[in-house]
């Protein structure tokens, strides 16, 4: 059985723009987020409060976030540590996300920590965020394959997911950072997480489309009961600290499939596509999304 409704967690302004080579002006980012909200996306991940040397593309978080004041949508932001949380709280953020890795190689590359050191770094962040009444998401990267380590054992993923859940993260987003997952693997991981007592209602999926499997993987997750799906408008994105990570699942491709299945998202596909066409003009290159290309072809 498929769900009647899916919540799309839009990551374009964060996961998408963190990987752009050209510097996107802060005002353009704010306009992008406003247009995404107007297209009906109820959650738009806005930016990251990480070290500006690690992700220079998002170094304007302090300038950007106040421009979004009053937008009637959820605006989560990434925070790796207490310094990041302090910055987010100072600006009135109501939702934060920490981001762990299932593999040691990526924990080192992305966070300069071992897996367990990173979890220890997140713990006070999650505790303080919950005390402050915030919603907290826990990302888990490299859930299927890792560019340095190859296939990632399911047990390793389950251990770190459980650690984030036990820490108090409301939602756990399972990331296929380099886009190597296939539907059977998705099914196996979700089944193991059930067995480990992590409720499917707390899970989200975060697929990248490197091998063209993101939609198939999404469908496998929906059949398993997942109802929160991460996607990036126009298919922007990747991860600066994972070689071979290409674009995220494009939000338009996802909405095309969900519309066809009669699954409600609240998203206006025409308005969303127009937003990605506009953003592609700002970036000076066409959107990689098949749906954007098909719908904007004159
Ligand atoms: P580090 O070098 O180990 O930092 O980096 P540190 O803790 O040793 O601190 C060094 C200095 O940085 C200190 O300053 C800190 O104050 C400062 P000093 O005292 O030397 O002057 N600092 C900060 N400044 C501003 N904001 C902060 C902050 N933290 C420390 N938050 C660190 C460790 C975690 C900071 C670094 O590795 C980092 O920022 N990493 C972020 C990497 C990132 O953002 N990656 C992309 C997001 S993850 C992703 O895209 C995957 C995902 O989409 C899911 C998927 O697809 O898999 C989520
Ligand atoms: Mg990602």
UniProtKB/TrEMBL annotation:
Span of domain Pyruvate carboxyltransferase: 6-273
Domain of life: Bacteria
Entry keyword set: Lyase, Metal-binding
Name of protein: Hydroxymethylglutaryl-CoA lyase
Organism of derivation: Streptomyces hydrogenans
Key word NAD present: no
Homology family: Belongs to the HMG-CoA lyase family.
UniProt cross-references to SUPFAM superfamilies, sorted A to Z: Aldolase (SSF51569)
PANTHER family: HYDROXYMETHYLGLUTARYL-COA LYASE
GO molecular function, a single term: lyase activity
PROSITE patterns for this protein: PYR_CT (PS50991)
Keyword Lyase among UniProt keywords: yes
């Amino acid at each position: 059985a498929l769900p009647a409704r899916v919540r799309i967690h839009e990551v374009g302004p964060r996961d998408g723009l963190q990987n752009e080579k050209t510097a996107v002006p802060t005002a353009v980012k704010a306009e992008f987020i406003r247009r995404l909200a107007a297209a009906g996306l109820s959650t738009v991940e806005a930016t990251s409060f990480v070290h500006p040397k690690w992700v220079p593309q998002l170094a304007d978080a302090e300038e950007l976030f106040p421009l979004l004041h009053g937008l009637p949508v959820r605006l989560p932001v990434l925070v790796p540590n207490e310094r990041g949380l302090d910055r987010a709280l100072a600006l009135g953020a109501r939702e934060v996300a920490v981001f762990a890795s299932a593999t040691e190689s990526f924990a080192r590359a992305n966070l300069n920590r071992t897996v367990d050191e990173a979890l220890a770094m997140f713990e006070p962040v999650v505790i303080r965020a919950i005390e402050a009444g915030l919603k907290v998401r826990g990302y888990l990267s490299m859930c299927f394959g890792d560019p340095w380590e190859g296939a990632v054992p399911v047990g390793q993923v389950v251990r770190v997911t459980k650690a984030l859940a036990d820490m108090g993260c409301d939602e756990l987003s399972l990331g296929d950072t380099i886009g190597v997952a296939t539907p059977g693997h998705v099914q196996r991981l979700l089944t193991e997480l059930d067995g480990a007592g992590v409720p499917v209602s707390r899970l989200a999926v975060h697929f990248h489309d490197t091998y063209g499997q993101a939609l198939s993987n999404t469908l496998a997750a929906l059949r398993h009961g997942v109802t929160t799906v991460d996607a990036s408008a126009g298919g922007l994105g990747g991860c600066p600290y994972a070689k071979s990570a290409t674009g995220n699942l494009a939000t338009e491709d996802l909405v095309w499939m969900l519309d066809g299945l009669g699954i409600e998202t609240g998203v206006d596909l025409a308005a969303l596509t127009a937003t990605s066409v506009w953003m592609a003009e700002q970036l000076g290159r066409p959107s990689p999304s098949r749906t954007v290309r098909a719908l904007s072809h004159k």
